[in-house]
Amino acid sequence: MSSAPLERIQNEIEPLRQQIINHKVYSVINDLEDLRIFMQYHVYAVWDFMSLLKSLQINLTCTTIPWFPVGSANNRYLINEIVAGEESDVDSKGERKSHFEMYLEAMQQCGADINQIDQFVDALKTTGDLNKAYELSDTPDEARSFVDFTFKIINSNQPHLQASTFTFGREDLIPNMFLTIVNDLNKKFPDQISLFKYYLDRHIEVDGDHHSHLALEMTSDLCGNSDEYWKAAEQATIESLKKRIELWDGAYNKIVFATTTA
Predict the structure, then answer these.
(1) Mean pLDDT of 114-123
(2) Can you spell out the DSSP letters for the chain?
(3) How far is CA 208 from its chain centroid?
(4) Mean pLDDT across the stretch 55-72?
(5) Which residue among 66, 87, 178, 224 is least enclosed by CB atoms within 10 Å?
(6) How confident is the model at residue 67 (pLDDT cuts 50, 70, 90)?
């Protein structure tokens, strides 16, 4: 695995990563209601992460019948390993669940409204149309923009862009400050925060360690020695991080508005 191009991307995106890690949204999460609003925005990123992941599996493995070997066996292993962990991890009770399902359960325990994301997913299942699903569920503009960009990358059908966005745009972006906030809330409201705390701890353990190394190897292999691929991967990653900042801006504005009008 060539480290120089990977390091170049990591250096280029570091200022954006710092903007996310130090985002002002974390400074306004003071109670359960603030956290509920944050989760109602964040859940869209949790959901479309799974779609991005599956787009890579479709491109890097054979998912049709009859089966034929596709591409690099190493990349097949890498993506299947990540999919298994994300799509069928273990929840706090040791039961198999996807990270999205675990997040929804954490929202319900916390008292966050899941009607919007449920309506969005149901409408998308029925219509196959993102715009209709947004309208029917009244998805926030920032979440629409975030998901639209993810599906732009998915629909590009270019695995090197999908992999770079997956790897660098979604790698460990959970700041210690947020973990401290959640831990403090969990001490006060263990019956409402424990599942979210478990989700975050599990996310850091699985995604931030094992999966991140697998994803880096996969991205490096897909970009290979192509300067064009590496440059395109860097631009896609930068845009994905900017979309994450916009999503956090939306959550921040909603929390501040709710606080000032309460």
Answers:
(1) 98
(2) ---HHHHHHHHHHHHHHHHHHT-GGGGG--SHHHHHHHHHHHHHHHHHHHHHHHHHHHHHS--SSS----S-HHHHHHHHHHHHHHHSEE-TTS-EE-HHHHHHHHHHHHT---HHHHHHHHHHHHH--HHHHHHHHT--HHHHHHHHHHHHHHHTT-HHHHHHHHHHHSSS---HHHHHHHHHHHHH-HHHHHHHHHHHHHHHHIIIIIIHHHHHHHHHHHHTT-HHHHHHHHHHHHHHHHHHHHHHHHHHHHHHHHHHH-
(3) 12
(4) 95
(5) 66
(6) very high
